[in-house]
Amino acid sequence: MSQRPHAIVSGASSGIGAAVAQRLLRDGWGVAGVSRSAPAKGIAHIPLDLAQADGREVRAALADVPGTALVHAAGLLRVGALGELSADAGADMWRVHVEAACLLAGAVLPKLGQGGRIVLVGSRVSAGQAGKSQYAASKAAMVGLARSWAAELAPRGVTVNVVAPGATETPMLQDPARGGVPPKPPPIGRFIQPEEVAALVAFLLSPDAGAITGQEIIVCGGASL
After folding, report:
1. Do residues 141 and 164 touch, judged by C-beta distance below 8 A?
2. Is 6 helix (H, G, I), strand (E, B) or coil?
3. DSSP string, 128-190
């Protein structure tokens, strides 16, 4: 990596993305945040709506932004049982979780040399959960992307991983769009904290994690047991 590494973090204005951006700032990184609203002070803002942006817009927005790492943390949750699924909701989640990951990674790839990093923020729900089939499908697709890209980029010394948290104490946890699928604390008796997820992301971006690639690492407080 360069003397001062630089990360491009999507969803940097809220939730896990904001926690990742703040952790990286503390660790000495330069951080650019891709989000609709402005992130916290110290983070360069790249205003993009990833639910709407096309490849040309993403490439243009990131053209002059330094980056030795990409963290795709932007996300949204829509729920529904089989027979009541919304095609629009499914398409929205696919665009933000999967298509946006492809656009961001494609735009950042030319900047990534030896030691480059890509981390996608997925979900432990990628294995499936009642009432969240479309969300689970889009998060499972992120794992497929990461494993495929990891195989492609390993010869370049670039790693690609997924951090998959369980119920995390962010605004999404209280989103009215959850409807009849209320969050449940995991066996540790509390929700995951976004700073805990950010700590794992920071490790995966570090030189110490250079041999970890193509993995989905779950942070769930025992909910997967």
Report:
1. no
2. strand
3. --TTBHHHHHHHHHHHHHHHHHHHHHGGGT-EEEEEEESSBSSGGGG-GGGTT------TTSS
Measured between alpha carbons, how far is 215 from 202 in angstroms, rounded to an integer? 15
Specify whether the backbone of 24 is left (phi greater than 0), alpha (psi in -120 to 50) or beta.
Answer: alpha
Q: Using an 8 Å Cβ cutoff, are 206 and 152 in contact?
A: no
Cα–Cα distance between 154 and 135 in angstroms, integer?
A: 29
Q: From the CB of residue 194, how many other CB atoms can be counted at a distance below 10 Å?
A: 22
Residue 180 CB coordination number (10 Å): 8
Residue 23, SS3 per DSSP: helix
Sequential pLDDT tens for the chain (225 residues): 447 999 999 999 999 999 999 999 999 999 999 999 999 999 999 999 999 999 999 999 999 999 999 999 999 999 999 999 999 999 999 999 999 999 999 999 999 999 999 999 999 999 999 999 999 999 999 999 999 999 999 999 999 999 999 989 888 777 666 556 677 889 999 999 999 999 999 999 999 999 999 999 999 999 888
Query: What secondary structure letter does DSSP report for 192?
Result: B
In this prediction the pTM is: 0.93
Question: Mind telling me the catalytic residues?
Answer: 135
Judge contact between 194 and 18, C-beta under 8 A: yes
Residue linked to tokens 């995951």: 192
